[in-house]
């Protein structure tokens, strides 16, 4: 990350720490815009889930989630509903909505998540 006095910050993917969030398998995430840069109003995360990987069923009590697929396909379970998504598709997940993601493509699923307010570690609840 670089910054200057002009009020901008540059985040290079090679400089961002990778992590696997709780309740996820075969997943690598990078915080593209950490919440502290915007007073925890939101954060932006790039995720990649390999074939056979998933985000197991969970929900958030505080953060709403906007998920945008950049490549690959998946099935997203939202409560009792299942939605198939592919590149260019998006979905908004409100608080308290149980959800999970299963990769359905041969290639990894790549996505962008926006959380508002910024997702905190303790805001991932098992079902």
Short description:
This protein is mostly beta strands and 127 residues long. It is built from no helices and twelve strands. It has one domain: Jelly Rolls (Sandwich).
Explain the overall architecture.
This protein has 127 residues and is mainly β. Helix content is 0%, strand content 57%. It is built from no helices and 12 strands. Strand 3 and strand 4 form a beta hairpin. It is globular, with a radius of gyration of 15 Å.
What attributes characterize this protein structure?
0% helix, mainly beta, single chain, Jelly Rolls, 127 residues
Task: Outline the secondary-structure elements.
Elements: E1 2-3, E2 9-10, E3 18-19, E4 24-33, E5 43-59, E6 64-71, E7 73-78, E8 81-86, E9 90-93, E10 99-103, E11 109-116, E12 125-126
Antiparallel strand pairs: 1-2, 3-4, 4-5, 5-10, 5-11, 5-12, 6-9, 6-11, 7-8, 7-10
Let me know the average pLDDT: 94
Strand content: over 45%
Helix content: under 10%
Radius of gyration: 15 Å
């Amino acid at each position: 990350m670089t910054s200057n006095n002009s009020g901008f910050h540059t985040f290079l993917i090679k400089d961002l720490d990778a992590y696997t969030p709780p309740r996820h398998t075969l997943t690598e995430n990078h915080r593209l815009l950490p919440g502290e840069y915007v007073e925890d109003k939101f954060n932006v995360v790039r995720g990649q889930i390999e074939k056979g990987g998933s985000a197991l069923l969970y929900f958030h009590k505080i953060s709403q989630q906007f998920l945008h697929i950049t490549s690959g396909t998946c099935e997203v379970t939202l409560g009792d509903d299942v939605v198939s998504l592919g590149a260019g598709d998006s979905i908004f997940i409100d608080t308290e909505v149980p959800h999970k993601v299963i990769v359905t493509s041969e290639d990894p699923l790549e996505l962008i998540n926006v959380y508002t307010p910024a997702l905190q570690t303790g805001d991932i609840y098992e079902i």
